[in-house]
Design goal:
378 residues; alpha+beta; 51% helix
């Protein structure tokens, strides 16, 4: 029972941690990446007309359509410089409220009173020593437009400047590589005109995401890909699911090893209770009675061990979720303690697997005991 209980608890805890990690990743990606993203299947950018955007806005369930221009640029602040990914977004990007809970300094502003502002990642702020509280030094942005040799260096690149307005902090990869700027600023710097690299869509509350995705696909045509947030990171989610599956299989093998102890215990019990079983046969007991006694013994061990393990695993997960007993062990971790999420489906699957295994390993000793003593009585 103890072996089954601890194996069950370990399985519940590990599965809950995987659930917590998956939820954490979803929350991070949903903060930075859109619910639905429209990109060109082949090519980097595409023409976007007001009529095209209006058609998208007219789709039932579509809330906000944000135009995006994204590319690598070189930025300089005072004497520090680095290469970052610049994401030019239309003003309604702020209406999606994806960065509201991740602002670490300054304000979420893209343009105000004719002044352009940049919202930068915290890693970019640290690397460039950017201050958003004073506007004495602008953030200079350079874009290489011509790699051919020229006597005039100004023909090699374009340069524009704007003020650092706010700092966001989501995840290290985003914080150290991204800055948000007004769409018009990016359009002028890259000389994109009406071209866009993608369109980001936020759906209305209670809208069916898959239904909206299908309607958008019908409108934009076969030359575009329309991806949900999960599809944008499908490889990572698939990897996480595979890791969870293999962990489940590995711990199930551990439970199987613990169940083998039940097998040998029942075999030893059959030998130890030889006289008692003979008495039962002498009193009129049959093979089914003896078999059921041993099956009930194995089932009792399975149910008690599984019940205790489920309660123990669920209790530990609740304590971890409530009090954060075990920390991540890293100063710059996204969360201070390991995330966990309890799902009833994990409890159900674990219970079914454990009870099935233990009943199966109990069947042979029960069948053997009933057969041997019935032959002996004859």
């Amino acid at each position: 029972m103890i072996g089954i209980a601890f194996s069950t608890a370990a399985l519940i805890i590990v599965l809950s941690v995987f659930n917590g990690l998956e939820d954490l990743l979803r929350s991070l990606y949903s903060s930075f990446d859109p619910e639905i993203k429209i990109e060109l299947k082949k090519g980097k950018s595409f023409e976007v007309t007001p009529e095209f955007v209006d058609n998208l806005r007219g789709i039932e369930g579509v809330g906000v359509v944000t135009e995006v221009i994204e590319d690598y640029v070189y930025v300089r602040y005072r004497d520090a410089d680095m290469v970052v990914t610049m994401k030019g977004v239309s003003e309604n990007f702020l209406d999606q409220h994806r960065l509201d809970n991740h602002l670490s300094d300054g304000r979420l502003v893209l343009s105000e009173l004719g002044v352009n502002y940049a919202i930068i990642g915290r890693g970019v702020q640290y690397a460039l020593s950017v201050s958003v509280s004073e506007n004495l030094h602008p953030l200079q942005v350079f874009y290489i437009k011509n790699m051919k040799a020229s006597m005039n260096p100004s023909e090699l690149y374009t340069r524009k400047a704007l003020e650092p307005g706010g700092v966001f902090s989501i995840e290290k990869n985003y914080d150290e590589n991204y800055i948000f700027v007004p769409l018009q600023f990016a359009e002028d710097l890259l000389n994109y005109g009406a071209k866009r690299t993608s369109l980001e869509i936020q759906t209305m509350a209670n809208a069916d995401l898959k239904s909206v995705q299908r309607k958008i696909t019908d409108v934009v045509g076969e030359n575009f890909t329309v991806l949900t947030n999960e599809e944008q990171h499908k490889d990572l989610y698939r990897l996480l699911k595979l890791e969870k599956l293999f962990t489940f299989v590995a711990l199930t093998l551990l439970i199987l090893v613990a169940s083998i102890n039940i097998f040998f215990s029942l075999m030893m019990l059959a030998l130890d209770k030889k006289k008692d079983i003979s008495i039962l046969f002498a009193m009129g007991g049959n093979t089914n009675l003896i078999r059921n006694i041993f099956l009930n013994e194995g089932t009792l061990i399975a149910f008690v061990g599984a019940s205790v393990g489920l309660l123990l695993g669920g209790g530990i997960c609740w304590l971890q979720d409530t009090f954060g007993l075990i920390g991540m062990g890293m100063e710059n971790a996204i969360v201070s303690s390991y995330p966990v999420k309890i799902k009833m489906i994990d409890f159900l699957l674990t219970s079914v697997v454990i009870v099935s295994i233990t009943v199966l390993v109990s069947f042979y000793p029960a069948r053997l005991a009933g057969r041997s003593y019935s032959i002996q009585s004859l």
